[in-house]
Design goal:
The chain is an alpha+beta fold and about 160 residues long. Helix content is about 40%, strand content about 25%. It is built from 5 helices and 7 strands; from the N terminus they run βαααβββαβαββ. The chain has helices spanning about 15-35, 35-45, 50-55, 105-120, 140-145, and strands at about 5-10, 65-70, 75-85, 90-100, 125-130, 150, 155-159. The chain has a 7-stranded mixed β-sheet with strand order 1-2-3-4-5-7-6. It is globular and about 40 Å long. Keywords: Acyltransferase, Transferase. InterPro entries: Acyl_CoA_acyltransferase (IPR016181), Bact_Acetyltransf (IPR050832), GNAT_dom (IPR000182). This is GNAT family N-acetyltransferase.
Length: about 160
């Protein structure tokens, strides 16, 4: 896939991020976690008011560096990531998702690279992520990008 854009999310992207993140959680974790836990994840992480508020404070503090989006040539948001540097020298990916029909096309890789650049600019020398469950479908993606297991659900790598 040729991405038209990986950029900081704008207020107009909030609904697309909310839908995309909810769709990815349901598809990836529905059978692994069950309906109730998936519903809680979607409710906690995908609410439109929450995402709107988070977009409104991009880079507001090192612990929160904001949302990034990847858009295709038509401008449709096909991926999103959020992160920050919550402790000195340590970056954290809070969310990273790609539209199911755009996976394995470089979208997640482009978002991960952009988040890493943003974190390095704020002093991070490592990057971590916590996955929602052991055996998460995203595990091969992250290990491919140099992440190693710190715990069964926590992964890290050097930037």
């Amino acid at each position: 896939m040729l991405l038209a854009d990986v950029r900081t999310a704008a207020p107009r992207d909030a609904a697309a991020i909310s839908r995309l993140l909810a769709e990815a959680i349901r598809e990836d974790y529905g059978s692994l976690l069950g309906e109730m836990r998936v519903g809680r994840l979607v409710s906690d992480h995908c609410s439109l008011p929450r995402i709107r508020a988070e977009i409104g404070i991009p880079g507001g503090a090192p612990a929160w560096l904001g949302w990034l989006v990847a858009a295709d040539a038509d401008g449709t948001v096909v991926g999103a990531a959020s992160g920050g540097v919550p402790f000195p020298s340590g970056g954290e990916i809070y969310s990273l998702c790609t539209a199911p029909d755009h996976r394995r096309q470089g979208v997640g890789t482009a978002l991960l690279a952009a988040a890493g650049r943003r974190m390095r600019a704020h002093g991070a020398v490592s990057q971590r992520i916590t996955l929602p469950a052991e055996g998460a479908p995203a595990l091969p993606f992250f290990t491919h990008h140099g992440f190693t297991a710190l715990t069964p659900v926590r992964l890290g790598r050097t930037l």
